[in-house]
Amino acid sequence: MTSTRILALTVAALLLIGTTNSLANDKNDKKSAKPAEASAGWTESQMDQPATESLDLGMYNAIRDEGLEHSHVMDYAGGLIDGIGPRLTGSPNMARANAWTRDQLTKMGCVNAHLEDWGEFGMGWQQLNTWVRMVEPDTAIFVAQATPWSPSSNGPVKAEAISVVINEEADLAKYKGKLGGRIVLLGAMREVPSTDKPFFERYDEKQLKELEAYPLENSNADMQARIERYMKRIMLTRKILPFLTDEKPAGVIVPSRDGKNGGGTGIIFDDNGAALGRTPYKRDTAVPFPVVVTQIESYGRVFRLLKNRVPVTIEMNVETKFTGDHEHGFNTIAEIPGTDPKLKDEVVMVGGHLDSWIAGTGATDNGAGSIVALEVMRILTSLKAKPRRTIRIALWSGEEEGLFGSKGYANQHFGSYPLSTAPDQMNMPEFLRKPAGPIEVKPEQKMVSAYFNVDNGTGKIRGIYTQDNGTVYDIFKQWMEPLADLGVTTITNQNTGGTDHLSFDAVGVPGFQFIQDDADYETRTHHSNMDTYEHLVPADLKQIATVEAIFVYNAAMRDKMIPRKPFPHPELRDQQNAPLPGLYPTATPGDAATN
User: Fold this and answer.
1) Would you call 237 exposed, middle or buried from its count of C-beta atoms within 10 A (0-12, 13-18, 19+)?
2) What distance lies between CA 229 and its chain's CA centroid?
3) HSE-up of residue 322 (Cα within 13 Å, Cβ side)
4) Half-sphere exposure of 311 (CA within 13 A, CB side)
5) In 3-state terms, what secondary structure has residue 283?
6) Are 509 and 447 in contact (CB under 8 A)?
7) Model confidence over 490-528: pLDDT tens digits?
């Protein structure tokens, strides 16, 4: 999932109301683009869905047998997670993962296995070695790693530590001229709560029942407050980075964030939230000094010593390597061709993101979703399935930095819309900029029945989010009835965010994410050095692959495509949310009064 919870929730909310943008190369063919409804609108006959699903229970049994009794999902886990390791977008490991997945798909019998370029990403980078230790007033070894795209320290550096806490721009002045050649502890010590709740969790029946209820509260105000806090942090970081650059510190250490239920103890979370700036992978916004993230216990000890005026000396060595300034991002694509002469050009898609962060080996985020998607295709090819529609797998890169791979794919194949270039909007990150016009839809958009995604860790599937598409509720309910013994029982019309199904939903293509048990995803493994093979749950992964294979197969075999929600109009969002005019006959004209 994307790098921080605030970023993920913000991206999710904006995409769910139809916001998308081109972060890839703009390869849109303007001649083939059409006004939204002219291309995306469905005829009444397409929307006329059968009341009863025609289910091939023999295929259910075959898929269950292959997926549960003859699984190879953990074989794929070993090859990807242990054999290749962390897969930062633009890195050599990401290139190896793209090639490896393409070759695995070819070996299992898929056709047209290839890599698709979604555009320029930024700098290629890999961590070679990082260590940090306190040498005075005591010796202590830190659990620490370089933050993504940190430059090298060019050998060990030893320097006096200084604590720097900057909550607003005015705080910069008190540190001016004091940081040169020193190792900066950047940020206040965070609270470390007692770990009085379990780190590994599964949904109970009460929680699943609660999940079925559709929330009626309007969360626009809460979301706006989140965006404002996020933008405040972004704007402050834009001031901090050049200030530190001018000061020329020997290095910077940041504290690791917390996890759910106080899970961020004794480990590190190393993602874009730990790095300085939103786009450290771009050369023009690169960080020029080494930055490491360390576990909170190591940070806390030094922070308290410095607070009590005890001199601290730290030694650190950051060894990293840049492999290019203009690396491109690629998605892995392959297909099982459709066999029905009337339906074979229609497509059902399955996927997950292949990229990861660097602290661990990207096992639960999102090696799990990628190896499950591979296993779905292996199950179906092993059974020599003859789907009526084409089944296409897509393994994305660039998800962690902003859904780049799936957005790029959606822009190139389905459609996109222009972003505002107003001065106030140009100061915003691209994913927060307002649309400047309607979605221009491409012909392929109406040929995709649905996209199914897994990106919530290793926990087994308990049901599915309809993503506010109530028309699929009865369809999925019938699909799930033969899967109740596997624990698949819950359907909710709620939205869920933070990952690649949003790129499809934003351009009017049905995109779905499954409800999964949390396991220890949000508490311990999400973007941490514990995101490793050992934290995968093999039985759960077998169940996920089996359930997803059945969903994909059912969608490929139906007489009708999966029904769609009303087409999104992000360009109308401000107008739709604007207060109704003329409600108060005696009100004076002008802006609202302020007290």
Assistant:
1) middle
2) 20
3) 17
4) 5
5) helix
6) no
7) 999 999 999 999 999 999 999 999 999 999 999 999 999
